[in-house]
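Thread: "does anyone have the structure for this chain?"

Original post by V.I.:
We have the sequence but no experimental structure in hand. Need at least a predicted one for the grant figures.
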Amino acid sequence: MPPRFTGQVLVFDADDTLWENNVLFERVIDDFLDWLEHPTLDRAALRAVLNDIEAANTAVHGYGSRVFLRSLGECFERLNERPVTERERRRIDELAVALVEHRVELVPGVAETLLDLGARHRLLLLTKGDPGEQRRKLDASELAHHFDGVHIVPEKDITAYLRLVEEHTLTPTSTWMIGNSPKSDIIPARQAGMNAVLIPNANTWVLEQATLDPGDDRVLTLQAFPELLDHF
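Reply from O.Q.:
Generated one for you, tokens below.
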């Protein structure tokens, strides 16, 4: 077993790191595409259209279930070349009820691992999205008491990480960003001088994927959340 790091600051992502998130969106998308039953485009082509719409909407409107519902509506309208009716809008809302109700399913081992890590390290939470929505999910998770600080930002870019370092007077070389997203958790954290831990999630959103430097020895890749206890 490798030696543990001691006295570190561990900054955690929330969605798809502490609790499952994108798998809920994927289930809705599957049901949505089934419902569309487009006469000429196959499933891959339909998904490509939706991905393009989501990328555009998140750049302008941010993240969360409301923006996602907007994207589904726009996708329907683009593919059918007409406005969505009120009845069709209600159907889209019905498909996404699990998202709107902010149901939370913790990743296995999260609660126990945070409790153990909190005895040896300082824990912070950094998540992006709609503030009210992210706060409701955090409350439902019953994990908030583990963190010295909770930060909900519109985008997790290098500016957000540098702001976090400044606000908490962090030493980047003893600070670790822990998350599932190469784009939002690993790359900007490393740009800010932090270390990073990638815990891949099989359901990570396609728009959160990015290529990492395989030679970067300050990025640790684990396969499951409890493996953090082997290193910290």
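V.I.: this helps a lot. The first strand starts at residue 9 and ends at 12.
O.Q.: and The chain has a mean pLDDT of 93.
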